[in-house]
Specification:
single chain, binds FE2/S2 (inorganic) cluster, alpha+beta, globular, 215 residues
Length: 215
């Protein structure tokens, strides 16, 4: 028999409450139609509804119209992989892909991204496997403190899709919006060169299997 605390809460009570909660949750799950959507969060005065497609999942939010995508990702959705650096469009730490294109999320209003697909660092790995760019950054030590790294990796994924010329100087130019205060640039360029070949191989396989690239 577990020790009963002064407030009457002991291990048995905890289990009863927890299991009761689970049972209630199961019942609620059974009663809900499968296709029913989760309700959007309660609207606060002055907010506007926005739907983002984040890493393949529809996310419905109510945000202040001045909310940036960076704030919505980190504050509303808890996706803290995207970093805030300068918050002024100058460092690239906040880079995400919107409809596959590189965007500075600190400079983009959430309402402007409504209805569009947002890909963050959390959305790059697939089925437990790192994206080739993530794997290449590990292989080449393309980081030191790591703060700029999510932005660098997402930017590199966008770069490879854009068709930046393949020489090192062009890669440095195409990545010039992403600042690394640790100076890991040579390793970042090496990682992108390695990833270029792997991403091309993945695309080729996807084309042969009829799969959409990145799906
Ligand atoms: Fe967005 Fe620096 S935090 S560019
Ligand atoms: Fe430290 Fe880039 S790894 S800022």
């Amino acid at each position: 028999m577990g020790e009963r605390r002064k407030d009457g809460f002991n291990r048995r009570v905890f289990l009863e409450v927890s299991l009761g909660g689970l049972a209630a949750a199961r019942l609620a799950t059974v009663r809900l139609p499968v296709a029913r959507r989760a309700p959007a969060e309660t609207a606060a005065p002055g907010t506007v509804p926005v739907t983002l497609h984040v890493n393949g999942t529809e996310r419905r939010l109510n945000v202040d119209p001045r909310t940036t995508v960076l704030e919505a990702l980190r504050g509303n959705l808890g996706l803290t992989g995207t970093k805030e650096g300068c918050d002024h469009g100058q460092c690239g730490a906040c880079t995400v892909l919107i409809d596959g294109r590189r965007v500075l999320s600190c400079m983009t209003l959430t309402v402007a991204a409504g209805g569009h697909s947002v890909t963050t660092i959390e959305g790059l790995a697939s089925a437990g496997e790192l994206h080739p760019v993530q794997a290449a950054f590990l292989e080449h030590d393309g980081f030191q403190c790591g703060y700029c790294t999510p932005g660098q990796i997402v930017s590199a994924v966008g770069l490879l899709a854009e068709g930046c010329p393949s020489d090192d100087a062009s890669i440095r130019e195409c990545m010039s919006g992403n600042i690394c205060r640790c100076g890991a640039y040579p390793n970042i360029v090496a990682a992108i060169q390695t990833a270029r070949g792997k991403v091309a191989t993945v695309r080729l396989k996807d084309a042969k299997s009829g799969k959409r690239p990145g799906s």
